[in-house]
Amino acid sequence: MEAPRHWRLKKQRYSLTGEVCPHCSAKIFPPRDVCPECGQEAKTAFQFSGKGEVFSYTTINDAPSGYQEQAPYAVALVKLNEGPIVTAQLTDLGAEPVRIGMPVEMVTRRIKDDGNERGVILYGYKFRPVIAGPR
Amino acid sequence: MNTNQEKKQVVIAGIGMLPVGEHWDLSLRTLGARAVRKALADSGNLKPDAIYIGNGLANILSHQANLGALISDEAGFSGIESCTFEAAGASGAAAFRAACLAVQSGLIDVAVALGVEKITDCDGSTALTAQDLILNYEFEGITGLTVAAGAAIIAQRYISEHLLDHSIFQNIALQSYQHAQDNPNAMYRNGLTAAMYQKQSIKNDPLGLFDISSLADGAAALVVTREELIPVESREEMVRVLGSANAIAPLSLHDRHQLLQYSAASQSAASALRKAGMSLNEVDLFELWDANSIDTVLSMEAIGLALPGKGWQTENIILNSMGGCLGRGNPLGASGAYQLAEAVLQLRGQAGACQIAQLPKRALVQALGGLGSTAITHILGHG
Predict the structure, then answer these.
(1) Is the pLDDT score of A76 beyond 70?
(2) Is the pLDDT of residue B13 over 50?
(3) Is residue A11 in some structural domain?
(4) Domain assignment of residue B245, given as a range
(5) How many CA atoms lie within 13 A of B165 on its CB side?
(6) Counted domains in chain A
(7) Chain B (153-192) residues lying within 8 Å, Cβ to Cβ, of chain A
(8) Domain containing residue A103
(9) Gap from B152 CA to chain A (nearest CA, Å)
(10) I need a labelling partner for A41 at 20 to 30 A (CA). Which of A29, A55, B100, B358 fits?
(11) Measuring CA to CA, how many Å separate A43 from each of A21, A23, A24, A75, A94?
(12) How confident is the model at residue B138 (pLDDT cuts 50, 70, 90)?
């Protein structure tokens, strides 16, 4: 189940922790050593709000191994309010059709399991439509 | 006249292709070795000093690495230099570029570039999942994204920004399937009608069955050497490598500043043309990437053949004259080698029923890996 890898990425998967570049103030997700905007070293952690909108999307019918039980599902590029774009599944869609520009917010959901090999479940971010008012 | 430069001119002395398809009876090593031997026979039995292999998925699908030793020995060339180059869909083109650089350096006299892919050793879903290796696993693959879905996400945004609909992809598919009808190495030779296209199942909205190429087995090889090593009387008919360039862009779709600009395609094409000392309007024949039809649309725009929003209008150029990945089939790491070998056939006037009417003198051949994140361009020509 690639434990070290998922452990290493837990701050990104559970809380959308990226970076803000100390040199040019660009917001960065996922974090990386070199700022893609100015080319200087990036290392200051920054937690994103998890709010954004659908930049583009598609529906997956032929899912890869490990995801077949979830199909069909929608995967989107979500443009976060702070600027960066994140790739994520959309969830809790109900009957609502996905559209470009749809406001969405991050939620934590089951990403995949290991096919009952050891019963390990991987959790991480997905995005759901924003509904007005508290929920 | 710069004789030193002329001496270093890289020429394509031979090509060899196997039909693309489901070769249940042939293993990875047999496919690869046969294409190498075919290309060497076509070169008049030159003896190779090196074999560079382009392959994408053997590590997973055939449980096989170390293809240099496996395939070159199988072809009967124990003792020579050989290793693998991987650049997703551009692997075959990467191996070809390595062969050109080796020969041009003077350290190698005769090099073979082989593209080989063995897809059908596993069931279809395993092959599709393996193909998703070319995505960023930690932040794309983990969401359940697939390569075709990534292409569809780009296509969806393209249609939305330019106020178009999915019918813009129809002509690219119809053209490719029409060209493949006359290509004896193509997988789909029965043609495609507009009615069939319009009834296709939509795999990943807005892309349908005929907008996404099929993975299949294949192997294609090219023999390159320096002009000075070719007998004077044969030099005139040789196809030359006039330019070669590789450029990369961010792998993940979410890291791209402009999702609808294939910047690597743009940079590698411009660089290859510059090395050839040519402008775009001197190119007679284009082999552009069409693993997914949106790839072709954005390549057209990136290279400068169409304005943004118009890359689906391909009527004014000679494009993928032997069917491309859509019609020929897509043996991933081999497709770049097929593109080059097919362009050589056209330039030699040996493309049979696919031969374009006026013998072309210059071809631009571009392979993309990983939804435009790697782009390798070659300019081939006579004289």
Answers:
(1) yes
(2) yes
(3) yes
(4) 3-123+214-381
(5) 2
(6) 1
(7) 153-154, 156-157, 160
(8) 3-129
(9) 6
(10) A55
(11) 7, 10, 12, 29, 39
(12) very high
